[in-house]
Design a protein that fits this description.
With 243 residues, the chain is α+β, with helices and mostly antiparallel strands. Helices cover 18% and strands 32% of the residues.
């Protein structure tokens, strides 16, 4: 019995020691991406509230840490009228725009810098990382995002393989048969906001979305160099919605 007690005490000590050995810092914030478009001079808009989480972890005896970021939410949906839609994606295949990183890139001039005096000393890097994620979550005010989100539409909204990229400087090129004569991107704005319900619209517009969680939009299981439609072969449902 004594051996069992000693063994349990040893395990408990290990668990408590592990709790002290690893230190974590986490910050969760909500952001809203808004897109405004002029259709024949009439402005229409769409927005999406997304939840972003940053974390940093480190061993208590180490001056450095690691971590990551995630985003939950969906693409912006702009109803252009008469069955035509514009989508501002959560990310793009090249990784230039990422919903989990765009706020940090857009508001980077308001974030702390590593060389500040308050981050000197043995634990300076860790203190900098903690301050960085906490101060990012506290920023308010809207700005044009540092990178333009990927804009897409569908020639036939019921057929995912008809996805088409939209050039923000020549939007009408993606709508050759549209019932409108002019289309202009007026603004794209990103803001960090107080906690709010996540937007839930994209599934009601793209009824097939859940069927493409594990498939590319051209119907192939994987992205391939010889795909007939390289653009639709580069996209999956996760670009429209991150659960």
């Amino acid at each position: 019995m004594r051996r069992i007690f000693v063994g349990l005490a040893f395990v408990a000590a290990l668990v408590l020691g592990a709790c002290d050995f690893f230190i974590s810092a986490k910050a969760t914030f909500y952001q809203r991406l808004t897109v405004v478009v002029a259709v024949d001079g009439r402005e229409v808009s769409g927005s999406s509230v997304q939840k972003v989480r940053y974390s940093r972890e480190k061993a208590s005896l180490s001056p450095q840490g690691g971590g990551g970021s995630t985003a939950k939410g969906e693409a912006v949906v702009v109803d252009l009228g008469q069955g035509r839609y514009l989508f501002a994606m959560m990310s793009d295949p090249q990784g230039a725009f990422r919903a989990d990183m765009i706020a940090a890139e857009t508001f980077k001039d308001l974030l702390p810098e590593r060389g500040e005096a308050r981050f000197k000393g043995e634990n300076g890097l860790w203190e900098y990382q903690k301050a960085w994620i906490n101060e990012l979550a506290a920023i308010r005010g809207a700005r044009r995002p540092a990178h333009m989100p990927l804009l897409v539409t569908f020639r036939d909204i019921t057929k995912p393989e008809t996805v088409t990229a939209v050039d923000p400087d020549n939007m009408m090129a993606a709508f050759p048969d549209a019932p409108f004569s002019s289309l202009e991107l007026k603004s794209v704005a990103l803001e960090i906001i107080d906690e709010a319900p996540l937007t839930e619209k994209v599934e009601s517009v793209l009824g097939w979305l859940n069927e493409y969680r594990n498939f590319m939009l051209d119907g192939n299981r994987y992205r391939t160099a010889d795909a007939e439609n390289q653009f639709s072969n580069s996209l999956t449902a996760r670009f429209f919605q991150s659960l």
